[in-house]
Amino acid sequence: MDAVLFDMDGLLVDTEGVWFEVETEVVTRLGGDWGPEHQEQLVGGSWDRTVAYMLELTQADVDPAIVGDWLIDGMESRLSRGVEPMPGALELLRGLGDQGVRTALVTSSLRIIADAVLKAVGREHFEVVVTADDVTCTKPHPEPYLTAAGLLSVDPERCVALEDSPNGVASATAAGCRVVAVPGLLPIAQAPGRVVMPSLLDVDVDFLRGLIR
């Protein structure tokens, strides 16, 4: 196993509830209503898709850049108060570090959001961080995972990606990675090259190495 590649929202940290609060505020500001059925449309998707969906839903005549700023301001404000790692995430990162396994963070969030999360989690856990600002195409396109593997100078087929969303799983699979899925808001089925686990508490370094072997 050359490296382990972590998704961020919903996999590394428990931010889906934070996103829901901020999205609700922004959509209310745009004159619309927001519910779980709307959030499910955006799980693991791109920043541009989120803004476009909100404007389409509300039919508000607001510059997309302004809507994006509202989202960033809301997320930064909440993340500055701290964010909870998902169960088992930090333990797994420490185990990988102890055994010298290289790691990367691969997220569809903007760099400014990732930086805020990493202040709480610890930037030192990741050799490489790939965000929406670093790629042309975000998940489910394979570019984010291919970019992370390229920056690490490793073969994606010898990497394990940890994901919680169908879009993220599709991205990692298309890049050639083995995938461990810990489903969040949306269900994910078992499939060749993919194992579905209930929690990162059930995942350790030996388990990940076994997926490559």
TrEMBL record:
It comes from the Bacteria. InterPro entries: HAD-like_sf (IPR036412), HAD-SF_hydro_IA (IPR006439), HAD_2 (IPR041492), HAD_sf (IPR023214), PGP-like_dom2 (IPR023198). This is HAD family phosphatase.
